[in-house]
Design a protein that fits this description.
mainly alpha
Amino acid sequence: MTSAQATGTPADRGVYAGFLALLLWLPLPVGSNRVWAVVLMYILLSLLAVWWLGLWLRRRVAPGLALVQARWVLLVFVLWLIWLALQWLPLSPDLLSWLSPRAWQAWREVDPQGAAPVSFEPWAGGLFWLKSLSYLLVFVLTLALVNSRVRLRRLMLVLVFSGAFQAVYGSLMVMSGLEWGFFFHKDTGQGVATGTFINRNHLAGYLELCLALGIGLLLARLEEEQVLGWRQRLRNWVRTLLGPKLRLRVLLAAMVVGLVMTHSRMGNSAFFTSLLVAGGMWLVATGRRSWSGPLLLLGSLLLIDTFIVGHWFGVERVMQRLEQTRIETEQRRYVAEDTLAPVRDFWRTGSGAGSFYTVYPAYRDGIVQGFYDHAHNDYLELAVETGLPGSILLLLIALPSWWMGVRSMWRRRRRLYRGAGFAVTMAGIAFAMHSSVDFNLQIPSNAALFVVLLALGWIAAYQRPSEN
């Protein structure tokens, strides 16, 4: 028996603490959307993974059921990495001209007879591959380390705290007029909350995920009601709104204020739509006898946090932006339309991960002004860069993991697992909507948090009740 086992201290406690600290760090340096931040993320995740692997080889830790059940998703993740690496592989001119005629035409100008890859930007593809490997490590570490109800609750609380910090910081910068980001004065996005991100839509995307986790925690904490009369019902309602859950409600209110102050149209629309849809699914899954508490909680989130608290912090400006939105005046609409042509041209192999900014100018309509390094549509951008095979692999990672969260709301009896399943369900709906007009999945902190939620789908569905 090891000393850790003898004292009852988990052998991987240090790895778990380091993992939580890393998740807190990722959004701080502008969403880790810098080369140095990506490299640092990869190094730290690799060190944590090697640490856990060393403990496993010494038989001081063991993979839980969730990690075992998700093994085929891990295989798809590995296939995704292999597919990205194949885009750098030099191909003969004949093979390249058949697989990707546009890539062959581009490389022919450099070396008519030499071998060349399908990727237009091998260096950017290498950075994209490094980010993807980091997300795989996030997925594995989440499954390996979150092996008890205590750790699951703590992980969710830490991420809620991270979202609340971003919301409060972003709101204070706007109200104080300081307008500082991560140790630099903001040149863009002034007058709206951006937190430590550059783009307000990326703060909104991060808050969507953190809000889903917080609401899932609140739902998990609702007590099973045994109502004896109207007094008992009233006491239960008061406890739901003001009892031990008050601090969590305050954090959620702060995040709603921060989300409203981003003035992100799709960010706010995705949050409220996903809350209504996932909330309805929760009510159906729990049955009519348990509707009282969840209905009060979800109703209070919509009424108090949105129409009362949000009113004082600019919700009317969000509504005004939505009312004034016209499809014909949105440049992102024309960028999306232009992107359909390279999707058709590169459907077999993709143009290479990270190459959108190189490929897009050749297809850009004269209506679009300025430089676009991203498509403002994750689906189209990933389809251009990774082709049909890459898009299918990503769907095989995301959809089954999201479905595990949905299924856990129906099948699990323990409320924490069902609450985690709600968080996965709501986050998946919100990001599916937001990704149609923005590029949150290109921001490492947001993509990593989304991967954590995908892993939580498997944990919510398969973690044993004995693992406490």
